[in-house]
Write a structure and sequence with these properties.
mainly beta, six-stranded mixed sheet, five-stranded antiparallel sheet, binds flavin-adenine dinucleotide, 2 helices
Length: about 200
């Protein structure tokens, strides 16, 4: 633990952390700690220590070569609901894009796939099927499967828990002020249709 200069609320040591949006400047929501890096400081000053910190900082689309074409702007490649770029007849999909109606990128695999289908249909002059945002994210970290259906980010504690987080297997619900819900399956194998149904279900 040598080298941790700021640890007012140190959490139990974890073996591994994956984090995004890290940096050393004051605008980064999460800060890497130490040299070599062995912890992450959260905005509320919580410090999470780990044997290994995997940082995904710097995941920035390489769109500089498009500057001057009118396709990319300071937010990267803006698209509308039909995946049309700022230039009619040119369509884009995936991590490099952001939905102009939302205003920021959502670089998940499910969104890239949803947009690819719409961009292809639009380019062929066919009606677009589905929405260019698919509120579904999955990942697997050290054997723990995580599936999330619903809007992100999540704020505050979940409103409902099935299972047991400390035992590594739980189904969590966050209710948002606009009436939508986000369901998180943590370490519990739950079919995607069930998660989507739970996210659509009215509040109990
Ligand atoms: C480390 C990591 C972990 C991730 N984990 C998850 C996860 O657990 N779950 C999840 O949902 N998503 C995850 N993602 C995100 C997911 O990989 C992306 O959302 C998805 O791959 C985006 O697909 P894409 O086709 O838009 O871009 P990419 O898959 O990045 O494909 C873009 C392709 O374009 C090529 N290319 C780039 N520039 C040029 C050029 N000028 N000319 C020609 N070709 C070019 C690239 O080489 C690349 O092959 C992860 C991403 C990373 C980096």
């Amino acid at each position: 633990m040598a080298g941790v200069s700021e640890r007012p609320r140190l959490q139990p040591r974890r073996s591994w952390l994956q984090t995004t949006n890290c940096g050393s400047d004051s605008t980064s929501p999460v800060r890497l700690v130490g040299n070599p890096i062995h912890a992450v400081a959260l905005p509320d000053a919580t410090v999470l220590a780990a044997d290994v910190v995997v940082s995904c900082a710097g995941e920035i689309p390489h769109t500089g070569w498009l500057h001057g074409t009118g396709l990319a702007d300071e937010h990267d490649l803006g698209i509308d609901e039909k995946c049309t770029t700022a230039t009619p007849g040119i369509y884009a999909a995936g991590d490099v894009t952001y939905l102009r109606s939302v205003g920021h990128r959502a670089p998940f695999r499910s969104n890239a796939v949803a947009q690819a289908k719409i961009a292809a249909a639009s380019a062929l002059g066919l009606p677009a099927q589905g929405a260019p945002i698919d509120d579904y994210f999955w990942t697997q970290i050290l054997g723990v499967a995580i599936k999330i259906v619903g809007p992100l980010p999540l704020h505050g504690p979940p409103s409902h828990i099935d299972g047991n987080l400390t035992e590594g297997s739980a189904l969590l619900t966050w209710r948002h002020s606009d009436g939508t819900a986000t369901i998180v399956a943590y370490g519990v194998r739950t079919p995607l249709p069930r998660l989507r149904a739970l996210a659509q279900a009215p509040p109990p």
